[in-house]
């Protein structure tokens, strides 16, 4: 079948960032005509600055400013030539100074992003492999992905998971000369650090292992001469490590530095390093400021500055230790992360602190998993003891209020970050008058009420769900056993606001991934059938398609009802320890999209839904007139002439096991071919039970003898159809013999015969489901774009599949 369109990662990020911008916490502008580093002016208000990455405050040092201004007057605002031709007069001195710092060969780059783009493709050879830590900085991942075009394999491990790293090394060691593990020295969000001692042990154990370490957030505040966290632990740089530092951020100037002790590798990068060759060089002012900063780093003064910063870090750590604030990582880096869990809580908390007079950063997807939103606080020498104490007091006061405003609790946040929970407080109802009905079987739900709210579409009316409950239980394979969860929320007058159902089931994590990813994963699954699969708490079921949520948006409390539903799901998630929550099959809705983003879900594109919304023709002779001119031509050329090839048989009930086996074989053909929507195959038990259920029928195509070399009564296509309350005819899935598929236009004929059957039975509409929307549109279906909202425990699987695409 045709490949479905997939969600563009940048579109998802755009929606998340747009929401954060609307909340006033992102894409802000600093104001004022001067800047000291201690305060920053935003929205006409002076705020104490706890968001800088200039941890030592050198960007405000008079010596750096004077050097920069002097260089501008001497050499101009820029030196507009590539360094490949000639460097500005100050470059040689800067390179000498930075070499003195590291006692190793160095390469100055315009910035770390361009530096990675120049260094990684030069350092990594075609016979090498790359393993990314899934939290390594985006600039490293982006540069590594360039090597896909050279067929360099790129793997990914969970953050600092050394067991997983060693497994990858073992897997790659027989095929590749060098294996590069790429990680940060200090990670920019949580402030946690790379396990350097253990990594060096792995290097000793596996000589092929090389390390590429981005230490820009460890620079200046740590290490001899401020050369960073990595060298503070290693002492000196071995040949198998390529290190990146910065001349901006804490260093106070601009640019970045690659450090490489391997002579041949250094020469190759230095001689021709892509952007290092063709990009503009650092401006004279930046080079001069970097020289002034290097002089400070080479003097005893750097240790005084480091100690002053450490005093502030220690004070902040001590104050936080006396609070219940959820500090995600405790160490002596200047980066602190206070978890808020949901984005909406983060927005609220940041805005409260800004009103109180403190500027902090929001950590948000994709820098962190969407459910691990939080406030990143950075400590610098600019911060004084009094405002550090005041910030902690403000957080202690406002944090519980931000939680209360957004209907969450400290324990929910702590569980999201796997932190120890506090003593549980009584859970408050979101709305006291809500009546929340939760059941685990449709048999405990009133049939008439359910069908009124949910029962006029798809295969999930009351009878359809009872059927599914009976099928997907007590099966041998785990993917064929589902738990059902029903939620109905009513107001004080017992008026329904919301109704839905969820299943807890095993999914392939690449269900909506590009086919290229699924092909690779299916190869792995030949040996490990449950590779990259997870238990998902998903709206609807893997079997059904359609509007699985009844939501009365005219009700004043509909948003609170959604929040109540999500709270219940979170309880279930904790109970089952599911890896994903999925809300699915939504049409475009800005309000719902914003609500879901704020509650920790990211939007992703689903396959289009295809429906014939009105079977308004009296007879099938009138049907072609309902089609567009182009579709009528398609009907007359590719459908109508082939109808004579087939004998059409509808089975409402069959006990012929051989026949059921044949139908299952046809279904399995399609399942194997349809990696566009990669799902576990449905169990054979389903087909046997369908054959005995009054709401199911099998619309079957038999190729006539004259078109099949004298062979008769062999089914070549079957549509498995559900009859929903005389409202919706639902061809739930399909089976085909691919040996005959194209020659006899089987797929198109099945679509047409489905329309004929639904018309004959008097149904009002047809729900053709997902995928193959181009073909379904040609037979008159309306194409309805659909979206899902996904909440994952972490970003690992999403990022891994991104790495795998076209790898």
UniProtKB/TrEMBL annotation:
Keywords assigned by UniProt, alphabetized: Aminotransferase, Transferase
Transmembrane annotation, as ranges: none
Gene3D superfamilies, per database record: 3.40.630.30, Aspartate Aminotransferase, domain 1, Type I PLP-dependent aspartate aminotransferase-like (Major domain)
Annotated InterPro entries: Acyl_CoA_acyltransferase, Aminotransferase_I/II_large, AON_synthase_class-II, BioF2-like_GNAT_dom, PyrdxlP-dep_Trfase, PyrdxlP-dep_Trfase_major, PyrdxlP-dep_Trfase_small
Molecular function, one GO term: transaminase activity
Cofactor dependency: pyridoxal 5'-phosphate
Occurrences of domain BioF2-like acetyltransferase (ranges): 631-774
Residue intervals of the Aminotransferase class I/classII large domain: 48-394
Name listed for the protein in its UniProt record: Aminotransferase class I/II-fold pyridoxal phosphate-dependent enzyme
Native source organism of the sequence: Flavivirga algicola
């Amino acid at each position: 079948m045709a490949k479905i369109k997939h969600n563009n990662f940048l579109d998802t990020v755009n929606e998340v960032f747009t929401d954060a911008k609307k909340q006033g916490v992102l894409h802000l502008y600093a104001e004022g005509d001067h800047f000291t580093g201690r305060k920053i002016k935003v929205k006409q208000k002076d705020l104490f600055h706890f968001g800088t990455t200039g941890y030592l405050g050198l960007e405000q040092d008079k010596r750096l400013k004077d050097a920069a201004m002097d260089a501008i007057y001497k050499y101009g605002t820029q030196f507009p030539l590539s360094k490949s031709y000639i460097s500005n007069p100050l470059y040689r001195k800067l390179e000498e100074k930075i070499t003195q710092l590291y006692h190793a060969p160095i390469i100055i780059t315009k910035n770390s992003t361009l530096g990675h783009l120049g260094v990684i493709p030069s350092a990594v050879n075609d016979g090498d492999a790359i393993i990314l830590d899934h939290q390594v900085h985006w600039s490293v991942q982006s540069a590594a992905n360039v090597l896909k075009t050279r067929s360099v394999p790129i793997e990914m491990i969970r953050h600092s998971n050394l067991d997983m790293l060693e497994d990858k090394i073992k897997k790659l060691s027989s095929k590749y000369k060098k294996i590069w593990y790429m990680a940060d020295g200090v990670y920019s969000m949580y402030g946690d650090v790379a396990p350097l001692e253990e990594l060096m042990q792995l290097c000793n154990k596996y000589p092929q292992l090389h390390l590429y370490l981005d230490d820009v957030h460890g620079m200046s505040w740590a290490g001899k001469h401020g050369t960073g966290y990595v060298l503070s632990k290693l002492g000196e740089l071995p040949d198998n490590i390529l290190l990146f530092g910065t001349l901006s951020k804490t260093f106070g100037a601009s640019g970045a530095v690659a450090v490489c002790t391997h002579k041949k590798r250094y020469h190759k990068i230095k001689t021709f390093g892509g952007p290092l060759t063709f990009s503009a060089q650092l401006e004279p002012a930046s080079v001069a400021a970097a020289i002034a900063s290097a002089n400070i780093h080479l003097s005893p003064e750097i240790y005084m500055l480091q100690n002053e910063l450490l005093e502030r870090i220690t004070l902040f750590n001590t104050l936080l230790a006396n609070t219940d604030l959820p500090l995600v990582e405790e160490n002596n880096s200047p980066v602190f992360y206070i978890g808020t869990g949901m984005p909406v809580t983060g927005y609220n908390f940041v805005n409260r602190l800004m009103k109180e007079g403190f500027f902090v950063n929001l950590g948000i997807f994709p820098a962190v998993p969407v459910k691990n939103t939080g406030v990143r606080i950075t400590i610098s020498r600019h911060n004084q003891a009094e405002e550090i104490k005041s910030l902690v007091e403000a957080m202690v006061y406002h944090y519980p209020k931000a939680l209360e405003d957004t209907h969450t609790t400290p324990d929910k946040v702590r569980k999201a970050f796997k932190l120890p929970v506090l003593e549980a407080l009584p859970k408050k109802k979101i709305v006291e008058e809500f009546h929340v009905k939760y059941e685990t079987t449709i048999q405990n739900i009133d049939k008439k009420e359910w069908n009124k709210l949910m029962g006029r579409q798809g295969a999930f009316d009351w009878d359809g769900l009872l059927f599914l409950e009976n099928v997907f239980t007590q099966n041998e394979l785990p993917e064929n056993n589902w738990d059902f969860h029903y939620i109905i929320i009513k107001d004080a007058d017992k008026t329904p606001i919301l109704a839905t159902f969820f299943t807890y089931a095993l999914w392939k994590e690449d269900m909506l991934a590009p086919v290229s990813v699924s092909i690779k994963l299916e190869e792995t699954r030949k040996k490990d059938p449950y590779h990259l699969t997870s238990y998902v708490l998903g709206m609807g079921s893997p079997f059904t398609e359609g509007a699985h949520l009844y939501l009365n948006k005219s009700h004043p409390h509909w948003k609170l009802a959604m929040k109540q539903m999500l709270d219940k799901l979170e309880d279930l998630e904790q109970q089952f320890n599911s890896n994903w929550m999925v809300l699915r099959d939504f049409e475009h809705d800005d309000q719902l999209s914003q609500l879901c983003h704020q509650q920790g879900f990211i939007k992703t594109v689903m396959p289009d839904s295809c429906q014939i919304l009105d079977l308004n023709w009296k007879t099938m002779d009138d049907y072609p007139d309902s089609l567009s001119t182009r579709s009528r031509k398609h009907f007359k050329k590719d459908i109508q002439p082939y109808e004579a090839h087939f004998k059409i048989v509808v089975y409402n009930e069959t006990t012929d096991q051989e026949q059921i086996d044949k139908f299952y074989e046809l279904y399995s053909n399609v399942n194997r071919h349809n990696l566009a929507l990669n799902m576990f195959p449905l169990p054979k038990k389903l087909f046997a039970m369908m054959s005995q259920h009054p709401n199911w029928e099998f619309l079957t195509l038999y190729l006539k003898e004259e078109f099949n070399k004298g062979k008769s009564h062999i089914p070549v296509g079957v549509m498995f159809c559900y009859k929903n309350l005389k409202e919706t005819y639902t061809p739930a899935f399909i089976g085909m013999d691919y040996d005959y598929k194209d020659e006899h236009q089987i797929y198109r004929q099945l679509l047409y015969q489905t329309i004929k059957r639904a018309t004959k039975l008097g149904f009002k509409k047809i729900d053709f489901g997902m995928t193959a929307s181009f073909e379904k549109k040609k037979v008159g279906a309306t194409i309805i774009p659909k979206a899902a909202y996904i909440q994952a425990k972490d970003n690992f699987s999403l990022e891994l599949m991104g790495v795998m695409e076209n790898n």
